[in-house]
Amino acid sequence: MKLRYIKQSAFFFVVRLSAAVIGASIAGFVIYLAVKGAGVISWSFLTEHPRDMMTKGGIMPAILGTFYLTLGAVVIALPMGIVSAIYLSEYAKQGPIIRIIRIGVNCLAGVPSIIFGLFGLSLFVVFLGFGSCILSGSLTLGFLILPTIIGASEEALKSVPQTFREASLALGVSKWQTIYRIVLPNALPGILTGSILGIGRAAGETAPIMFTSAAFFTGKLPQSIFDEVMALPYHIYVLATAGTRIEQTRPIQFGTILVLMALVLGIDLIAIVIRSRFRRKKRW
Q1: Which end of the chain, N or C, is surrounded by fewer C-beta atoms within 10 Å?
Q2: What is the C-alpha separation between 89 and 58, in angstroms, rounded?
């Protein structure tokens, strides 16, 4: 009996210690970035164009570019992901083919992002002739986050009790109306969780946009989806590989990282608030 309590106490100690180490690591990482980059954060830094080979000025074009690319990726991937998950969960006849499709989706979720970048370069930039632009980058990022959204959406749909579907169908409601009015609203919090993960990955990826949409420097804001854009992840990469100017641009690098983190967390926070509101409406 005493040995069991010792084992239990040891287990809880390890769990608490792990949580403390993770929390301290995250806090130390954020504090380090804040100390290094907070000095350059200002209104002009957020609203001006880069100057003097990006050693001065601001990062406003990169902020807008990241927002456009992320928004485009979500607009493309979210409907496709939800529809695909609905088909796999609600309509497809379960069998070997569907299992292979699910395995493929899971495998795609772990494919390195540079592979998606080369895919986007070959298909959208070269074959379809879109060129390096917002559309090519958004499509590439959309395909990048699509497996994550499909997987999370399918699990969310499966979490809705089967009795909900049976009760709706017993009342004479069609299958599509049951999915649209009963299943989807109850699965929406889980779907948004997958979307949050996708948003964070889309906003922070460098390799896909490097090949499909990101510009080293542009003096004007994009006027259409067929224009190149600067983006925060690629801007950080450029500043970090600026040769003899690396030390000169170091504060700007850390400031840009802080802005990127704030942008991703801001988008995620909006999604989390929406998800929480839907969860409060649940009655099960």
Answers
A1: N
A2: 47
